[in-house]
Amino acid sequence: MSNLVLGLDIGISSVGWGIINEETGEIIDAGVRLFEEADRNANEDRRNFRSARRLKRRRKHRLERTKEFLTENSLKKWLKIFPKDLELSNELHIKTLL
User: Fold this and answer.
1) Keyword annotations for this protein (predicted)?
2) Once rounded to an integer, what is the mean pLDDT over residues 57-86?
């Protein structure tokens, strides 16, 4: 039995292959398998959604850090500038008004 070598060329949208007899250098068989390319629109949509999630998370984190800074440095009267959904508890809010 002869020594056969399998060679692969793996690309983005295809895989090429070839079988060679190592002793004689003869090409036994070769071929290629093509795949459909990825849809650019789907990738762009996914990237836009991911970007929006990150922007929202970063804004929320900045507001939380700002609130923490104001609370730690006794600047509680400035906390009333934050939106209702990001306010601290009612008890803390009442204390800031005093």
Assistant:
1) Endonuclease, Hydrolase, Nuclease
2) 76
**Cα–Cα distance, 11 to 17 (Å, whole number):** 11
**Is the separation of the CB atoms in 41 and 49 below 8 Å?**
no
- Is the same domain home to 23 and 51? no
User: What mean pLDDT do residues 16-29 have?
Assistant: 92
The tally of domains found in the chain comes to 2
What would the mean pLDDT of 46-64 be, rounded to a whole number?
91
- pTM value is 0.41
Same domain, 46 and 91: yes
Instruction: Domain of residue 49: give its range.
Output: 40-97
Higher pLDDT, 32 or 1: 32
